[in-house]
Design goal:
Layout (H helix, E strand, L loop, with lengths): L2 H14 L3 H12 L8 H15 L4 H9 L3 H12 L10 H18 L5 E7 L5 H14 L7 E8 L2 H9 L1 E2 L9 H7 E4 L9 E4 L1 H4 L2 E5 L4 H4 L8 E6 L8 H13 L1 E9 L12 E6 L2 E6 L56 H13 L3 H11 L7 H13 L3 H14 L4 H13 L3 H16 L15 H16 L4
Parallel strand pairs: 1-2, 1-7, 2-6, 7-8
Antiparallel strand pairs: 3-5, 4-5, 9-10
């Protein structure tokens, strides 16, 4: 395998290129992406991609190019290259559950007289987040939407990502947490074209026209050059703050809070809360997540969580799921299902590191490159079921259905309780007309999910809870069998 050698060469080049430190400082100062402060190899890899596109030999020459006549366009291309965007719908299902059950219903009630909502998705990448919000608002308001003024603004640093967002056409990778019925309701299939050689999914106009996009660097919130008007009812700024320094983060969050209406809401990424924020915002605990509101907003006590009893289910031929944890006195954040650690192997990359690299490529729309990278290394991880699972998802995105089935079955051979692998295998088999096999796979997914506490976050489910997966599997089964599961 040649990949580890190539990886070492990248690190060494960043070290020996005398112009790299100065260029790195310029990039961080302009973008605020302090994320790259201790990631020289990752930053250099992205810089080198841009240098290759211009036939530039080193960082000093590339820095001169940035100062030249085409510098403005090249800075935009570089900013797009170094911004890693997650691009799938309804990311972090527990936050979208909070939006559906608590945040948006409360806002709709509070704004019922003026019938106006203003929502901002800050750091929206290629648009999956603001479009997910559009779908949710559309479903909640129903026919009343025609009488409302709903503004959903998506902003991002990357001009390239925003261009993709405006097209509103996505590959299967971005829809990987949606079941067949949801895809049909919200999207229409599109034919093959450059960039989507096996066709894609175009968002339906009813949702697309609810969102507009603008280019913005969040640093403008703190340097006085921001032109975004305040008065938002809801702001999402999720997994964007990880790029910035601690000082920038606190100032950005404070500025976002100042742009909220008095009873507005702010959602940030799960790993991004900081006790400092309580100086300007009050945290509100919701099932599975924490949201923020202006500090003077009255916060009612959370409603009790009612969990319906589950019917008795016949056993299936898979390993039993772990025993559910005892109920806590207060709501707790969902805990992923524990999985035994894989045996240690002598390999340059850990499975987690390789998976992170593959996801970055796929989330940036480079599915074919992610597929090639995974296949350079996959033989060294023969017993890692998550990597086999993602091999299957990538194959689906590329239209390689036979290889996708083989990979998903491989993941299940390694882990019979892998709920998401059962589910994706069932969707695949249904799509190719193997209804009996599809029903068995989906039934396995349903029964495994129902055997877990409803709020459990499923491994490799991108935030999907056991309850939501069970609902999706039940709908898919009904579509195959013609009856409720």
């Amino acid at each position: 395998m040649t990949a580890p050698v190539e990886r070492s060469r990248r690190v060494a080049s960043a070290t020996v290129d005398p112009g790299f430190p100065a260029l790195k400082d310029r990039v961080i100062a302009r973008t605020g992406h302090n994320y790259y402060e201790d990631k020289d190899d990752l930053l250099y890899d992205r810089l080198r991609k841009r240098m290759r596109s211009h036939g530039v030999a080193d960082c000093a020459a590339y820095s001169s190019l940035l100062d030249g006549a085409a510098g403005r366009e090249e800075w935009a291309a570089l900013e797009a290259e170094i911004t890693i965007g997650e691009t799938f719908f309804f990311r972090y299902a527990e936050q979208f559950a909070a939006l559906r059950k608590t945040i948006l219903p409360e806002l709709i009630e509070a704004r019922s007289e003026i019938r106006r909502l203003r929502i901002w998705s800050a750091g929206c990448s290629t648009g999956a987040e603001p479009y997910s919000l559009a779908i949710l608002v559309h479903d909640l308001l129903g026919e009343a939407l025609a009488d409302w003024s709903v503004t959903i603004l998506g902003t991002d640093l990357s001009a390239g990502a925003l261009a993709v967002a405006r097209e509103a056409e996505f590959g299967p990778w971005a829809l990987r947490t949606l079941d067949t019925e949801e895809r049909a309701r919200w999207f229409r299939r599109t034919p093959a074209r450059p960039g989507l050689p096996h066709g894609g999914y175009a968002l339906r106009p009813a949702f697309r026209r609810m969102v507009r996009f603008e280019r913005q660097n969040l640093l403008t919130l703190i340097d006085g050059s921001d032109r975004t008007q305040g008065g938002f009812d809801l702001i999402l700024c999720r997994n964007v703050l990880i790029y910035f320094s601690t000082d920038h983060v606190t100032r950005i969050v404070r500025a976002l809070g100042e742009r909220l209406n008095p009873q507005g809401w702010l959602l940030i990424g799960h790993a991004e809360p900081n006790p400092t924020f309580s100086q300007w915002l009050q945290p509100v605990a919701l099932p599975g997540t924490v949201a923020y509101r202006p500090i003077d907003t009255p916060v009612p006590p959370p409603p009790p969580v009612l969990v319906p009893a589950l019917p008795d289910l016949a056993p299936i031929l898979v390993a039993p799921p772990p025993e559910p944890a005892p109920a806590a006195a207060a709501p707790a954040l969902p805990v992923p299902i524990p999985r035994p650690a894989p045996p240690a192997i002598a390999h340059p990359l850990s499975p987690g590191d390789l998976l992170a690299e593959i996801r970055v490529l796929a989330d940036a729309g480079e599915t074919a490159r992610a597929w090639r990278r995974l296949h350079e290394e996959i033989d060294g991880y023969a017993t890692d079921s998550p990597l086999r699972y993602y091999e299957g998802l990538l194959a689906l995105d590329l239209g390689r259905e036979r290889e996708a089935e083989r990979a998903l079955r491989g993941a299940l051979f390694l882990d019979r309780g892998f709920v998401m692998a059962h589910f994706q295998l069932g969707l695949l088999l249904a799509r190719v007309g193997r209804r009996g096999e599809a029903a068995r796979a989906l039934d396995n997914a349903l029964r495994l999910a129902q055997g877990l506490p409803p709020e459990t976050i499923l491994p490799e489910g991108d935030g999907v809870s056991a309850a939501r997966l069970a609902e999706s599997a039940r709908r898919a089964l009904a579509g195959i069998t013609g009856r409720d599961a």
